[in-house]
Specification:
- The structure holds two protein chains of two kinds.
- Chain A is mainly β.
- Chain A has a single domain (3-301), classed as Porin (Beta Barrel).
- Chain A contains two helices and twelve strands, in the order ααββββββββββββ.
- Chain A has helices at residues 3-9, 23-27; strands spanning 59-69, 75-88, 93-107, 119-136, 144-156, 163-179, 184-196, 206-221, 224-237, 246-258, 262-276, 292-301.
- In chain A, strands 1-2-3-4-5-6-7-8-9-10-11-12 form a twelve-stranded antiparallel β-barrel.
- By secondary structure, chain B is α+β, with helices and mostly antiparallel strands.
- Chain B has one domain (20-173).
- Chain B has five helices and five strands.
- In chain B, α3 packs across α5 (152-173).
- The chains are: A mainly beta, B alpha+beta.
Chain lengths: 302, 174
């Protein structure tokens, strides 16, 4: 199937950010990421962020690997990779720079609502900058509060790697509340993503995405946290709220291990609800989304 | 350049930057005893708090008592030596508290610290803040105890641990 057919068959294509790097498995590492997510500090969850920031003059490196799979038909494997370095400029402000890469394997994804070219290829995703400023600490204030701003350039579409020239900015609000000597942690995120240059992957040149997430994680023994999280994304072409493209909600468990010099998080998200324009009203959306997301994150502290 | 190379190169660089963990046991119990009470002798006591004592301590300190079993030594010539643990971000932080015969803090020492950040809690200037404190002291982070940015969790939990042990002294040792 050529790309013009793809574009014609889909009214919209969203910029879903989840990347991967299969090589990490070979290295015994893992990683995963999402385009709207150049993460910061130690992550208890795969998609939901906490309000902590790196201490001043400290750095971390991350490798995030995400597998997106499960379309309405055929075989779809979207691997997303994010390799990120992050630095604490002050105790309240950190910034990060990340590179994104993708690997796509599509075969037989030719249904009317999620038609993609048969593909077996790597693609460079893009470059993402992010800054996070902590206003309140979850460890000493009634609630932790941080503001985060991410901006990126994406050279290829995250759904199946179509070449594009996309720029986006994504402000985000992060809340964190800890209980029981900081062993039970709640995180809530809310934000937006303004993207330009969506063509030709999507029909319209610009798009607004509203994003949100929530998670709770419990430290059940030293070094280990187990939790559940959910994240939602709604997209609106041309920045018009009356122009709804699709909404998707994922939910699933997360497992985190943290030690002095490194940490790892494994999370799974299942599409519990989705709705998309020109798609059957069966509670799922597949034009730009998948049924299952699996994310592995590894962080190294310096 | 092969398309797959960026996939491999970037994470490989990250993996190559990995560094081993630090050694993190700084003092044994015996070394901490001699650091706080040089030349003194100690008698180990077997003390387990009763449920009522536990509740009393929690009420006085406003801090949960994680274990009713105490690791306490009576210092010959006066004073108490207590080894305690508080939660760090990843593991337990083990520290020792020395109390004068009057019940005021003589000194604290960090025995084990395995966290990513916050090693400043070992610095003498930070530990010095606790010297002379009694159970009447607020022992409040950002109040009478200075917070260490980047190690707020460790700073708060150690502060709360000292507060809990001072209440323990009042309830079970005095």
């Amino acid at each position: 199937m050529d790309t013009s057919r793809i574009r014609a068959s889909l009214l919209y294509r969203r910029s879903n950010p989840i990347l991967l790097i299969p090589q990490l498995g070979l290295l015994g590492l893992s990683a995963g990421w999402s385009s709207t997510t150049a993460f910061a500090d130690e992550h208890l969850f795969g998609w939901v962020l906490g309000a902590e920031t790196l201490p001043s003059k400290h750095a971390e490196a991350y490798e995030f690997l995400t597998l997106r799979t499960g379309k309405a038909e055929g075989t779809y494997l979207g691997w997303d990779s994010e390799t990120e370095v992050e630095y604490g400029f002050t105790d309240q402000f950190q910034a990060s720079l990340s590179l994104e890469n993708h690997y796509f394997y599509n075969k037989g994804v030719v249904g009317p609502r999620d038609a993609l070219s048969n593909t077996n290829s790597f693609r460079f995703g893009g470059v993402v900058l992010a800054g996070k400023y902590r206003l309140l600490s979850p460890f000493k204030d009634p609630v932790g509060l941080a503001l985060r701003l991410e901006a990126g350039y994406l050279a290829h579409d995250e759904v199946d790697g179509l070449k594009q020239t996309e720029g986006y900015v994504a402000p985000q609000l992060i809340l964190q509340k800890n209980y029981f000597d900081d062993t039970l942690i709640f995180d809530v995120n809310g934000g937006a993503e303004f993207a330009w240059g969506k063509r030709p992957a999507e029909q319209y040149p610009r798009e607004l995405a509203l994003t949100g997430g929530a998670g709770v994680s419990y430290r059940f023994t030293s070094n280990w946290y187990i939790g559940v999280e959910s994240h939602i994304r709604s997209e609106y072409p041309l920045f018009e709220f009356g122009n709804h493209e699709h909404t998707v909600i994922f939910a699933g468990p997360s497992l985190h291990y943290g030690s002095e010099r490194w940490w790892v998080t494994l999370s799974y998200g299942y599409q519990i609800h989705g709705t998309g324009i020109d798609e059957p009203a069966d509670g799922k959306t597949f034009a730009e989304e998948v049924r299952n997301e699996i994310r592995l994150k590894v962080g190294l502290n310096f | 350049m092969k398309d797959w190379i960026p996939f491999v190169a970037a994470p490989a660089v990250i993996a190559g930057c990995a560094v081993p963990g630090f050694a993190n046991t700084y003092l044994t119990v015996e070394q901490a005893q001699q650091a706080i009470f040089p030349g003194a002798s100690f008698d180990k006591l077997n003390i387990t708090l009763t449920p009522d004592q536990q509740k009393n301590i929690e009420s006085r300190a406003g801090v949960r008592v994680p274990s009713r079993a105490l690791k306490v030594w009576k210092v010959r010539g006066g004073g108490w030596f207590i080894v305690d643990e508080v939660l760090g971000k990843h593991e337990y932080i083990t520290y020792a508290l020395g109390l004068n015969a009057s019940g005021s803090v003589r000194q604290i020492e960090i025995l084990d610290y395995r966290e990513t950040y916050g090693y400043e809690v070992r610095e003498a200037s930070w530990r010095q803040q606790f010297v002379g404190k009694t159970s009447q002291a607020p022992l409040k982070l950002d109040g009478d105890v200075r917070n260490i940015s980047g190690a707020t969790l460790s700073s708060r939990h150690i502060t709360e641990g000292v507060k809990r042990l001072l209440a323990t002294y009042e309830v079970a040792l005095r």
